[in-house]
Each structure stands twice: as C-alpha cells, then as structure tokens.
Amino acid sequence: MNDISLSHWEREVLACVTEAAEAGRQAPTGDELQERCGCDSISTTVHLVQRLERKGLIQVERYQRTRRITIVATGKATAPVTNRTPHWRTLKRPGRMPSAALPGLKTRRPDVAMAIIKAAHREGMALDDFIAELVWAGWQSREEAFAARVAATG
Fold first, then answer.
1. Would you give the end-to-end CA distance of the chain in angstroms?
2. Which pLDDT does position 99 carry in this prediction?
3. Are 58 and 71 in contact (CB under 8 A)?
4. pLDDT confidence of 140, banded at 50, 70, 90?
5. What is the DSSP letter of 28?
6. Which residues pair with 77 in a beta bridge?
7. By C-alpha distance, which of 74, 78, 76, 7 is closest to 45?
8. Cα 77 → chain centroid
C-alpha cells in the first residue's frame, strides 16, 4: 500500500511502530502513540492501529496487556512480549474465563497469595499480568486434561 493513501496520524503511527521494530523494542503503547500523534484520545490510537492492520500494512498479535506488531513490508516485528496471555477479546473459548481475585485469596490462603506475589516479583512481572497468566495457564491445562479424559473414554 502506498503512503499517499495514509492520513497524517496513520503515517505517524506506522513510523513509530516501524522505529520500534527496527530497534527491537516493544510495540509502542497507546500513550506513546497518542503523544507521537498529538491526538486527544487513546481510543484514537487504537483505531489508527486497526486501520493500518485493515490496510494490510501491519499484523498485530494482541495479548492481555500488550501487543506485538509486524511490519508487513519488511517482516520485522517489535520485541516479543513477556506475557503471552491472549487478550480477552480474542480468546477462542466457551463462556467466560475466570479471573482470580487476590484479596479473596489473601483471606482464604495467605500463604499462596504471598507465594504468587513473590513469584511475580521474581519474574519481574506486574502482579496483574502474572495472575492473568496463571489463570490462563491453569484454565488451558484443565481444558487439555478434560479433552484427554473425554478421548480416553472414547
């Protein structure tokens, strides 16, 4: 696709993402894109990224709290993400995926809550990201175990 068909803000977002990919950095956040474009709303940057994606200029892998963006023309991508928990909007799953509430866990099992907090710190992850990853991994593991039991009973 030709740059001439892009709006000023689309060109700014594409340039920002391209710079991040070239440098091997994480994909720019909504705040970073908002600052780069000078727009008034984070939702505007979300829509700009979606428009670039629809135009076939970028491919976006969406995760719970971040994304990885590939520039189609060069094949270069922003840095891999540390938390690969899928974004809740893109999960292919039946029903609602459960979420964990740390305050409730602290009340019922303070030892487990403390172990989770320590593990998140040890891995350098935000607590919310770490818990989301635990919930996703646990849910996925249970689904796989269930499928194996169903297959075994044939």
1. 51
2. 52
3. yes
4. confident
5. P
6. 70
7. 7
8. 14
**Amino acid identity, position 68:** R
12-59 pLDDT tens trace: 999 999 999 999 999 998 889 999 988 888 788 989 999 999 999 999
SS3 for 44-94 is HHHHHHHHHHHCCCEEEEEECCCEEEEECCCCCECCCCCCCCECCCCCCCC
**pLDDT 10s digits, 77-126:** 999 988 777 766 665 544 454 555 677 778 888 888 888 889 888 877 77
Angstrom distance (rounded) from CA 127 to CA 40: 29
Dihedral, CA of residue 52, residue 58, residue 62 and residue 68, to nearest 10: -130
- So what's the pLDDT on residue 73? 94
Beta strands in the chain (DSSP E): 58-62, 67-71
Phi, psi (rounded to 5 degrees) for 28: -60, 145
Name the phi and psi angles at 121, rounded to 5. Answer: -65, -45
- Does 62 score more than 60 pLDDT? yes
- The CB density around residue 71, as the number of other CB atoms within 10 Å, is 19
Residue 89 Cα to chain centre, angstroms:
10
DSSP state of 27: P
Count, residues in the chain: 154
